[in-house]
Write a structure and sequence with these properties.
This protein has 3 helices and 5 strands. By secondary structure, the chain is an alpha+beta fold.
Amino acid sequence: MTLGELRDLLRDCLVLWGVAGRVEVDDEGVSVVTAEGAFSLAAADPDLYPVRWFMQTPERRAAGAPPRAVPSIVAALSRMRNALGAEGGAAPRFG
């Protein structure tokens, strides 16, 4: 996934999640900037498998803690949504 694709994906997620913020490409990868601070997502080096992504939150950054390792883009988006305090949305019902 390119930085541009990740940026576009996160922009779409902010709309879906109803979160006010902006998405920008920076030195750390791609950041979602909200009133609470910058939440960053960066691709891991391929030799770090099974880690695929690293996510940094304003709280971890302020504490001097390293970014958290994340195994997949699905897990990264889930953690990002939770860190932003966004709702999960209604589950689809079939029947």
